[in-house]
Amino acid sequence: MGYVAIADRDHEIEHHDPQTFISKYVWSQDHKVIAIQYGCTAIFVGLIALCLSAMMRLQLGFPDSFSFINPENYYQFVTMHGMIMVIYLLTALFLGGFGNYLIPLMVGSRDMVFPYLNMLSYWVYLLSVIILLISFFVPGGATGAGWTLYPPQAIMAGTPGTEWGIILMLASLGVFIVAFTMGGLNYITTVLQARCRGMTLMRMPLSVWGIFIATILGLLAFPALLVSAIMMLFDKTLHTSFFMPAISSAGMDPGYTGGSPILFQHLFWFFGHPEVYIVALPAFGIVSDLLSTHARKNIFGYRMMVWAIIAIGGLSFIVWAHHMYVSGMNPYFGFFFATTTLIIAVPTAIKVYNWVLTLWEGNIHLRVPMLFSIGFIFTFLHGGLTGLFLGNVTIDLPLSDTYFVVAHFHMVMGVSPILVVFGAIYHWWPKITGKMYNETLGKWHFWMTFLGTYAIYLPMHYLGFQGVPRRYFAMGNTDFLPASAQDLNAAITVSALFVAAAQILFFVNVIWSLKKGPKADPNPWDATSLEWQTPDTPPKHGNWGHDLPTCHRWAYDYSVPGYADDFIPQNVPPDIAPVGRDHEEDH
Amino acid sequence: MEIGLIVLATMLAALLGWILRQSFNTQPWVAEVTPDADHQAPFNAGPKLVALTTLLAVITSFFALILSAYSLRMDLGDWVPLTEPQLLWVNTGALVLASATLQWTRNKAMRRDASSLVPGLLLTGLLTVGFLVGQLIAWQQLTATGHYLTSNPSAAFFYLLTGLHGLHILGGLYVWARATTKAMGGDNDAVRQSVELCTIYWHFLLLVWLVLFGLMIST
Question: Is B2-218 in CATH node 1.20.120.80?
């Protein structure tokens, strides 16, 4: 039980009245505006990454039909698509976007604890995005080293973008990590210090739990990426030999001696695996809240859900080398990492069971956010199960360089979080904008995206089993592949273009809603958590008007027996008389 | 990677243990009337101390991972142990003194002894800047004896580690400069917490330096 005084300082209200347009919407210190800035920037770069993937698919589906795609820029597309999607879109959107918007509202605070630092976090993030985008236009173009940036090829002549692209990439990552750290300090401190009265840790909605633990993972794991980025920058610009082995390049000796590319892989994946959960845990949390709200049932096994998030977070630090089975590691190492990897399946499976059990006998409303949430259960389960294959060394070795892996990680880390992103945007849209979206358009958007992504990634598993190699610009001399493999590739490309085009529906919906959408009810889903109980919709700066809310219960009091309404908001005290009939006898 | 792993595991274990203690015997589904009076805060510290502690955890992770890289890189064949300049002992002494002075200043400030605040802060700054200048001179001595960044990974790590540690000190000096300016303006109450937080940060960076220094002279 811990309540904190600083959230109670009502005199802070006076500080919360920015006057001009600039201070209100540009140099804003309001967590909600910063969240929207983060979200829009992330979605903007995400669209660029989506275009890059479309161009990759054009080459793969219809080889050599497009003169603007050559091997060099194909690799640049691959690299930038991966890096943007994982870091600049998903990490920024879940933590900078949803974290910023939801944490203060859900825990009943007026704002983040350090609003100025929060503002700084966004602008530094924007700087990192700008540096990243500049790298497309420098001599040599963006780096084409693959999103993992493995040395030595990442900085050796022959890889696209080794002149400036790789330097800007590493610099951008460094700047991003600084931005993330500033944001992360805020999220942690706000959760620990600025909860309203009665909001104990175990009364927080699971969205906050997911974001909180993901932030801790990020704060501890991003330093590994920073270390590897700094050391690789040294190798590239100052010719140290941290990672670079003695090697000759085009008959010349570039002067490197004895460094270890494997060392880079260790550092990179020490960040890279927790990164998967930095993206997944907020998605887990948000989807739990969406399912519970739209099924009108309390989340099944709340405490178990919290502990599963914590367990997954802890375990995610000891599985990194399962990304390196093909690096020639000691078999005992592989055995250890395969074991820890498979152990992660336990808390993850608990979560999936609990989601399904939350739906069991629920009063399910198939609104758009619910569709996306249920879609997420399918895609996540699917991607998780192929993860069980790849977690085993002996199965990973032959599959590692095939499309099976591409299908796996896109299912688990691409499609699944993106479905949650959309679900969450639809869910909180009425609160964020005060307008309703078009339900029909939203449903079309869901079905086209959900079925379309299945049409992309399900066939990729078969291609992987056939041995179709990933990362290749062109298949070349691959007699072991049946000719139909290329037909399947073409079909995948068509599906990919279809899904990309389907996203237009989302933006149409956004624009329609902002211009003509009907005014939203303050709590259109009859939800219990505090963000739906604000005095204004959208909430004003300071969130709560004059008095901060007091929390009396958890966020999952749906369909409580004996109450007329099928939900009880968190700020309703328990001594209110149950409304309705002679309820005691019923139970 | 063992070093990084052990350090991280310790930090995570402490944190998760705390969270589990908070959550174990609770029944979140039970609604209770929340009294108006405040209960004990989880940390009495206040948000700035929580944020600083979190930042120190991040920096710990950062240096632990570099040390992991150091120990992995050291085991490869081309490592030639570096003979560090003797000046580093003097620098270490300066940093220890800076930490001690700041602690003394903090103790005085806690006892509302305003007179020693500014001199204490200035002396701390002087010693810390002295440490940084000493580190730069150590770099010069190394290059003068032919140990460049590219000559051996041991030298490269020396420049990298001292440089990164120095950057963190510079960050601390920024906060120190703000606090000192405020203290010179006579705003002692506002400065008290800054001094307290600076003290923690200084002790922490001293500890980091002792670990780095110990590792570098022993290998």
Answer: yes
